[in-house]
Write a structure and sequence with these properties.
- About 35% of the residues lie in helices and about 10% in strands.
- α4 links the parallel β1 and β2.
- It contains 22 helices and 14 strands.
- Strands 7-8-12-11-10-9-13-14 form an 8-stranded mixed sheet. Strands 2-1-3-4 form a 4-stranded parallel sheet, with helices on both faces.
- The model has no long low-confidence stretch (mean pLDDT about 95).
- By secondary structure, the protein is of the alpha/beta class.
- The radius of gyration is 24 Å and the shape is globular.
- The two termini are about 35 Å apart.
Length: about 600
Amino acid sequence: MSDSPPKRLRSQDWFANAERLDMTALYLERFMNYGLTPEELRAGRPIIAIAQSGSDLSPCNRIHLELEKRIRDGIRDAGGIALSFPTHPIFENCRRPTAALDRNLAYLGLVEILNGYPIDGVVLTTGCDKTTPSALMAALTVNIPAIVLNGGPMLNGWSGEERVGSGTVIWRARRAMAAGEIDERTFLDRAARSAPSAGHCNTMGTASTMNAVAEALGMALTGAAAIPAPYRERGQMAYQSGKAAVDLVTRDIRPLDIITPAALRNAIRIVSALGGSTNAQPHLTAIAAHAGHDLPTSAWQDHGLRIPLLANVQPAGAYLSEDFHRAGGVPAVMAELAKAGLLETDCLTVTGTSLADNLAGHGSLNEEVIRSCDNPLSKSAGFIVMQGNFFDFAIMKASVISNSFRTRFLSDPERPNCFTARVVVFDGAEDYHARINDPALNIDETCILAMRNTGPLGWPGSAEVVNMQPPDQLIAAGIESLPSIGDGRQSGTSDSPSILHVSPEAALGGGLALLRDGDRLTVDLDRGRCDLDLSKEELAERAAKAGPKSIAPHTPWEKLFMENTTQLSEGMVLRDAPAMRNTSAKLPKHNH
């Protein structure tokens, strides 16, 4: 944060530039055609953009079409001028082949808008999974004062007396249907009941996780992450966020001041304590890269594995986002961690004060939903970072390892937390769905399912398809999960114990490209190892034969993405983009 007097506003180079009156006239005149006045734009009042992510194509973020009114009110009351613009739509459930393609595309578009227009600060409206990281990545690249406002989760879904959470109910009902317990009509009905109102996922999937990350990083107001979309407090938070955006410009507090190594470590701890999505790993890695900070893959285990699971929220727990908000939300979880000395609280935030100040007076209001560190759901709930003799990186979410899974695979007293399994390989999701019930595969309760060609290059974009369920006959026999491994991702709403984000991916000739049906794979969670039971010579021979896979893109953007994007271990960022930082430090050239 700067201690110097307030700088000349960036927008004044457009609207109050005495040296280029001709350009000032050009920039001003078209804003007049819908009622703005030269006096407003030339008065030295901060121009605050509203990056509008809501649209009919983005149901999870559509609430922002209404919230924008309250954001505008807050900006105006604080002395600013609001200018709204649409961002690239991202809808996780509907975008094919995957919404992961859109994160970097939305990032690019947002960078160009924030950099090239007369904008002094911005309210970043988020909600659905990829909207939050794309917005934070862009804010760091341009580095103008910015604040995150998400649209909030949906209300609790109910099927009779049972809570049904978005996403999570799909995976659970899919298993129930495979076991013959429910029919297709009931399956669709349960899915529909999980989405009872406006808002994003009401589970601790990627949407809720990443909006919690924004708050943990200090980029959103205290308590903003979990307020349900229909609650009146959501509109009040929109108003306060608009006011705060003006204050950030006045104080000259910028994203690069806030997103520090300590803030990034805090974010890992919060994801762990929430039982949050594994998708946070590439997203937070990307955010760190754009902030200019090294966040090694080992950080997820170093700072997250021993963090206790405090949020009793699906998929790792029993409750949903509405319950979580009423129990105190993200501030309560952070306060519990801070009490136990597990959080770095001297970090600057968008409130202009420290995280410690923001958390004063917060704590759990319902210990069944948000536990204390003395009474967690699990003592080590974070992420296990893995390496193997055939790949460099993978990650596993510890909080969704069920008791039944632990009993079947991790309870050998001679090899605790270790198992060896026979591999069954699937070349993509289509192959899996076509063959999972094929008796010739002889899949039993001791197998591990492998999914390859689903990474950033192979899909392309990396797909949420690694959460594979067992064959129907095993589910009917009570075996609801098998270990799985893949070079893609899985939904943050999934409760599958999967080894994910294997890098390098099979499409590059690495990792899973070496696997064959019938191979034996040994997984040791305590050592963070996943090794093929093959000699070095056999592994080298297979690696020599693997080689990169030729994949034809379907669209121009897919081609650009495939040619320029890093692996999931590196955040799946555009290779040269993180080096372009703080672009607002230099004003762009005039356009005439």
